[in-house]
Amino acid sequence: MLKDIIENNENYQPGLSIDCVIFGFHDNQLKVLLIKVDRNPKWSLPGGFIPIDQDIDTAAVTILNDRTGVDGIFLRQFATFGKVKRNDQHFDKKVLEYLEIEEAKGKWLMRRFVTIGYYALVDFLKTIPKPSSDREIVEWIDHKEVPELILDHKEILDKALNTLRTELNLMPIGYNLLPEKFTIPELQKLYETILDKKLDRRNFLRKITNIGILKKLDEKKSNVAHKAPNLYSFDKEKYDEVLKNGLNQGW
Amino acid sequence: MLKDIIENNENYQPGLSIDCVIFGFHDNQLKVLLIKVDRNPKWSLPGGFIPIDQDIDTAAVTILNDRTGVDGIFLRQFATFGKVKRNDQHFDKKVLEYLEIEEAKGKWLMRRFVTIGYYALVDFLKTIPKPSSDREIVEWIDHKEVPELILDHKEILDKALNTLRTELNLMPIGYNLLPEKFTIPELQKLYETILDKKLDRRNFLRKITNIGILKKLDEKKSNVAHKAPNLYSFDKEKYDEVLKNGLNQGW
């Protein structure tokens, strides 16, 4: 892919890239989808470049789909990163040496490029990571155990996580991260994992019920020894309404 | 400035610009600082390009200061705009004809450039708009009476306003928009103007007091016939603390 961009430099928006922070929830962990190119010791966020004939939002969807197999998901732009030194020496040394690309010299790819950060919330069980070549590994990693990342990707990831925490106060988010049917304790665990703190059970129940987006199903969780908890799903219509108008009436 | 960028194309980050939405509060109006270049019938947001040796955040501060005389203010990146057609034909027709710049052809400035939006909150009375040339007019305009803007600047302005409304629920904002001393009704009016709705006086008083950022002064508003209201100022230390940790304890 990098080779294609260097050879077809003119077909891409100069000096600009996109990086995606993809969150999934599984085993009570908030996981992040990361990529590693075989000989490079560091991991990276899935990212790519922007064809000159594509809107940036479209390019983000395409990159996400091409590099991870993830499709039709909740994707939001959250910030743009452009420190002068953000990709200093990254491409001209390590990667290019590795790719043995001589002709790259002097092209925009060799200078600073600014990157637009998007974050995605996906259903872990429906997401099958798909590497774009057999030189790549794509893996879900617990956000608390993220290894060393290239460039400023750690900063991008941290900012995405902070945005997600803030947005918990502004909109519902469970629809994209939980399976179709879930229990209240499972939903609470999702919130606790994102916020990284324990929540009071009764307060949580009251608040989440007040939002009015839950549908109690006539069904109980199976495989549970006794006192099986009730299953719920989201009332999609109301959910979308709250998503549009915001959670917090605030002032 | 445009001429400089075309002649020194290599010194700027290719394909990228910055636009600033500058809000001020005066006469119970939320105003926006807009620029008009004399013969162009449309107005625009103050904006500019990014020197290759500057971080984008630094470039935003510089642009804001150079084009408006505004300094040391609350400035935040809020979104990046990159539709393919966003500056279609803008520069290659109108502006270049006007500037009579032949050599611009084929440079990145002639293609789509993506723009990073920043918004600023400033004290209206301390802000003296400063045009960067005598061909420009810089003016405060009520956000409800914004004339036709170039490119997608209306979309950028709307998005900034929406961000500001959302952030009213997340952080205090009055410090940057009000004079040092103010009355509670003045503060309430600021909130009402941004949210474009009436607020209940008692609820507002209770909520704003609970945040714990106000300092009651031993001083009353002068020039008021009778029952002069008390003056307040912000407790800057507490204000900054809330700004850092967020207004809403939420979950």
UniProtKB/TrEMBL annotation, chains A, B:
Q: Which Pfam families match?
A: WHD_NrtR (PF21906)
Could you tell me the keywords of this UniProt record?
Hydrolase
Domain NrtR DNA-binding winged helix per the UniProt entry, residue ranges: 174-234
Top-rank taxon of the source lineage equals Bacteria
Q: Which GO terms describe its molecular function?
A: hydrolase activity
Q: State what protein this is by name.
A: ADP-ribose pyrophosphatase YjhB, NUDIX family
Q: Species lineage, top-down?
A: Bacteria, Pseudomonadati, Bacteroidota, Flavobacteriia, Flavobacteriales
